[in-house]
Amino acid sequence: MGEKKDTILGIERNIFFAGLTSFTMDTATKMIYSVMSMFLLSIGASKTLLSLIEGIAESTASLLKAFSGWFSDRIGRNKPFMLLGYALSALVVPFYALASHPVHVLVMRFVERVGKGIRTAPRDSLIAGSVKSGNTGKGFGFHKAMDNCGAIIGPLLSFAIISAFTGNYRLVFIISAIPALLSIGIIALYIKEAGKNKELPRPKISLKSFPKRFYAFLAIIFVFTLGNSSDQLLLVKANDVGINALYIPLVYLIYNAVSVLFAIPMGILSDRVGREKLIIFGYVTYSLIYFGFGRTGQAGVVIGLFAFYGLYSAATDGVQKALVADVADKDKVGTAMGIYNSLLGVTLLPASLIAGLLYDHVNNSAPFYFGAVMALLAALMMLVFYRRRLSLAKAA
């Protein structure tokens, strides 16, 4: 009986409600995100500025991810960071409706990302601490699926609003506050601490705190992320090839729908065959997709590429976090997640700057060719990383 009480639909309760929290918040943020590129262009932003807004907000706020992860490990608690982080993001989202200049969006995007910076690593640490042995990939896969379910509902709601109210982006921002506020209630009422062992020594941030394998993986992540700029440019590309701005949220929905379908199966598969194989597959898939975005000028092909983009996401996002949890010591998972998420955010600034400049000053294919090359390089590095692990295992 205890087994049943600790799970919901076969998922540990904490992971289920962490997923539900992400579902509601992602519904809100993807309502905004799916129309933000068109909104920014409508108030005078260039492609470079659009990319920089995303890059600056993510990069500066992401520095908090390492600190919040370390601090949550230090005090042995995750829930307070989740509550504060989700609350900060939830309270700022309706204020996008007041923006009349791209700089206003930058400020609000920064505050929203600060909230994400505070909550992300402690939330990932809570998930890692709540999973049963051998099911880490499944746990993160479920969370990714729930996150992307919100990313399906959000664009659908945005499409319905801008269809009914003739492109009223500001109304989208106001209504997005409803699901955002729901996320706070779910955390307060249903999330419990993952039972960290407070007898363990308090972790210190040091280069010697983690194995070399962890830093080798971070180097691969850096190379890949340098070619993985904001998804906003993908939406701009969709508009450039002739897809009406009204239907841009639905194009983004396709990507998230495919990711939802495959996130849990990919996570379970990574538990069985190894994380590295799934990540290599994801990077190669990404390289082919970005090459396709660079080559095509047809709307139908772009829509198909968005579907395959969801497959890449399912094979990498949750699986990479599961690999971080595998490599790090149990008492340092929050810190490791923080460093990992910080690297992703910080690298997004140069990635977005490069992509935006290529888009504005070369052509609308150049940033995608660059991303394809970087992803292929990262896949080769990941192959070496994998073979190195096998060699060490045989030697042992």
Number of strands: 2
Query: What's the shape?
Result: globular
What is the H/E order? HEEHHHHHHHHHHHHHH
* Integer-rounded radius of gyration: 20 Å
The biggest beta sheet reads: 2 strands, antiparallel
| Number of separate structural domains | 1
Structure description:
- The protein is mainly alpha-helical.
- The protein has one domain (13-192, 208-395): Growth Hormone, Chain: A (Up-down Bundle), CATH 1.20.1250.20.
- Helices cover 80% and strands 1% of the residues.
- It contains 15 helices and 2 strands.
- A two-stranded antiparallel sheet has the order 1-2.
- The termini are far apart.
Task: Put the structure in a nutshell.
With 396 residues, the chain is mostly helical. It has helices at 2-5, 13-42, 47-75, 79-92, 102-130, 136-164, 169-175, 177-190, 212-226, 232-240, 248-273, 275-295, 299-327, 333-361, 366-395, and strands at residues 7-8, 11-12. 58% of the residues are buried.
